[in-house]
Amino acid sequence: MNRFFCSACGEANDTEAKFCQGCGAALGKSPDSSAQPVTTSADTAAPPPVHKSPQTATPLVGNKRKQFPVWFAVAPVLLVVAIASSASYFLFGPPSQDQPSSEQTNASNQASQTLPAGAVAIVDGKVISREDLNRAMEELKTRLEGNMPANGSREYVDLKKQTAQTLVEEELISFAAEKMNITVTDEEINSQLQKNTSSVSPSKVQIRKDLLFQKTYAEVTKDAASVTDEQVLNYYNDNPEVFNQPETRRVRHIMVADEATAKTVKARLNAGADFSALAKQVSTDPGSKDKGGDLGDFPTENSGMVPEFENAAKTLGAGQTSEPVKSSYGYHIIRVDSITPPGMQPFEEVKDQLKQGLMDSGQHFEAWFDEIKRQYADKIIYAEEYKPTPGLTP
């Protein structure tokens, strides 16, 4: 199956898709759609039993992301820090035909600036090292959950190149935020870590970048055109399918390698052992082990889990624990902590998020960021292998 991976959030998308289904970002293809698709391992292996929680998979309220305009995904109050994380829709916005190419804008700098050894790029004197890029690729690998292109493949090289360009644009956001006296505190970062319900925890560095973007976005777009409460309510009433939530379950699991171990674990649970404590001791799932096996909330149907796991989980009531369940990843003891029935999100619960999302802020921010890129165009130098494709931004 051919897929394009989004460098912002790691979501796999159909080859014909123009925007990421996970975060709304443009997929960064060239105007002639010559970007190479990535062949995922989903053709030959079932997805791993670690679910991308709704908070991670999409920052949108509601469960039907495509109902919103693409730029709605970057509304700052809707961005949620998790796996995966993304900087911005506009960091991978549509190709800009009136932008000078990287080669043109950087040519004047080549004589006066030299990249240090091990550097990927320089942004107005700030060095982005290969270590920075490798860390970013490792985080992306975690978010892709086993679907990373093979190291050394053309797809991997293209993804690494795009990730390098993302790091450059993150620096541009950082520079702009500093000029606007926008900061992120350690308390804010720790608060986001505590709110994270995904099976994969983002790094503090990535959380800081995400929060900095959110604050910058809010500051830049605070004077953008707004909508009235009546318009927000009308949108809510006219699009009920967007806010219908399926039944969801809060699930934990303990994964082990063989049936004998699974039976021993089950016996200990039956004897009164604490599920969370036992998961931390014996589970082999690195994504959930330290969280007591917690996988977060996911839909009862179409959960994204392997079929054996989903079928077992949906037969359990709240507070119930399964017998050992075999999958291609090993044996699982599954526990359902709670079940949330289906229903429509209350208007008051989504009102503020929806209002922010319906503001005409996307174009406002895009124009602002285009200007930032123009200001720094002759202050960015890439190592040869990471230079952007001519005709694309940055």
Q: Average pLDDT across residues?
A: 74
List the total number of helices.
13
How much helicity do the residues have? Answer: 25-40%
Give the CA-CA distance, first to last residue.
Answer: 30 Å
Structural commentary:
The chain is an alpha+beta fold. Helix content is 38%, strand content 14%. It has 13 helices and 12 strands. The chain has helices spanning 54-57, 102-110, 130-144, 154-179, 186-195, 204-220, 229-238, 240-243, 259-270, 275-282, 307-313, 347-358, 362-375; strands at residues 2-5, 12-14, 38-39, 119-123, 126-129, 244-245, 248-256, 294-299, 325-327, 330-340, 343-344, 380-382. The strands form 4 sheets. The chain has a 4-stranded antiparallel β-sheet with strand order 8-7-10-9, with helices on both faces. A hairpin with a 2-residue loop joins strand 4 and strand 5. Helix 3 packs across helix 4 (154-179) and helix 7 packs across helix 12 (347-358). The longest helix has 26 residues, at 154-179. It is globular. The chain starts with a strand and ends in a 12-residue tail after the last strand. Residues 1-5 and 23-112 have low confidence and may be disordered.
